[in-house]
Amino acid sequence: MDIALGTLNMVGLGLAAIGPAIGVGLIFAAYVAGVARQPEAQSRLQTIAIFGFVLCEQFFIISLALAFVLQP
């Protein structure tokens, strides 16, 4: 029974990785589109894109830590 619960935690971790992956893709797609429209705003958009990337990855790292902490 414990092995099944640990496996379920890892499946949940895999599902939790989908959200940040989609978020990072959307952030950089918007960044590329913004720079294509206004190249002079690249430095400002790049700062915002990196900040958004860090926030998305932070949520995954927290879910990764929780998956290992909650594993029996």
Automatic annotation (TrEMBL):
<comment type="similarity">
    <text>Belongs to the ATPase C chain family.</text>
</comment>
<dbReference type="GO" id="GO:0046933">
    <property type="term" value="F:proton-transporting ATP synthase activity, rotational mechanism"/>
</dbReference>
<keyword id="KW-0813">Transport</keyword>
<keyword id="KW-0472">Membrane</keyword>
<keyword id="KW-0138">CF(0)</keyword>
<keyword id="KW-0066">ATP synthesis</keyword>
<comment type="function">
    <text>Key component of the F(0) channel; it plays a direct role in translocation across the membrane. A homomeric c-ring of between 10-14 subunits forms the central stalk rotor element with the F(1) delta and epsilon subunits.</text>
</comment>
<feature type="transmembrane region" description="Helical">
    <location>
        <begin position="48"/>
        <end position="70"/>
    </location>
</feature>
<comment type="function">
    <text>F(1)F(0) ATP synthase produces ATP from ADP in the presence of a proton or sodium gradient. F-type ATPases consist of two structural domains, F(1) containing the extramembraneous catalytic core and F(0) containing the membrane proton channel, linked together by a central stalk and a peripheral stalk. During catalysis, ATP synthesis in the catalytic domain of F(1) is coupled via a rotary mechanism of the central stalk subunits to proton translocation.</text>
</comment>
<keyword id="KW-0812">Transmembrane</keyword>
<keyword id="KW-0446">Lipid-binding</keyword>
<keyword id="KW-0406">Ion transport</keyword>
<dbReference type="GO" id="GO:0045259">
    <property type="term" value="C:proton-transporting ATP synthase complex"/>
</dbReference>
<dbReference type="InterPro" id="IPR038662">
    <property type="entry name" value="ATP_synth_F0_csu_sf"/>
</dbReference>
<dbReference type="GO" id="GO:0008289">
    <property type="term" value="F:lipid binding"/>
</dbReference>
<dbReference type="GO" id="GO:0005886">
    <property type="term" value="C:plasma membrane"/>
</dbReference>
<dbReference type="InterPro" id="IPR020537">
    <property type="entry name" value="ATP_synth_F0_csu_DDCD_BS"/>
</dbReference>
<keyword id="KW-0375">Hydrogen ion transport</keyword>
<dbReference type="InterPro" id="IPR035921">
    <property type="entry name" value="F/V-ATP_Csub_sf"/>
</dbReference>
<dbReference type="InterPro" id="IPR002379">
    <property type="entry name" value="ATPase_proteolipid_c-like_dom"/>
</dbReference>
<dbReference type="InterPro" id="IPR000454">
    <property type="entry name" value="ATP_synth_F0_csu"/>
</dbReference>
<keyword id="KW-1003">Cell membrane</keyword>
<dbReference type="Pfam" id="PF00137">
    <property type="entry name" value="ATP-synt_C"/>
</dbReference>
<feature type="domain" description="V-ATPase proteolipid subunit C-like">
    <location>
        <begin position="12"/>
        <end position="70"/>
    </location>
</feature>
<feature type="transmembrane region" description="Helical">
    <location>
        <begin position="12"/>
        <end position="36"/>
    </location>
</feature>
<keyword id="KW-1133">Transmembrane helix</keyword>
<feature type="site" description="Reversibly protonated during proton transport">
    <location>
        <position position="57"/>
    </location>
</feature>
<dbReference type="GO" id="GO:0033177">
    <property type="term" value="C:proton-transporting two-sector ATPase complex, proton-transporting domain"/>
</dbReference>
<protein>
    <recommendedName>
        <fullName>ATP synthase subunit c</fullName>
    </recommendedName>
</protein>
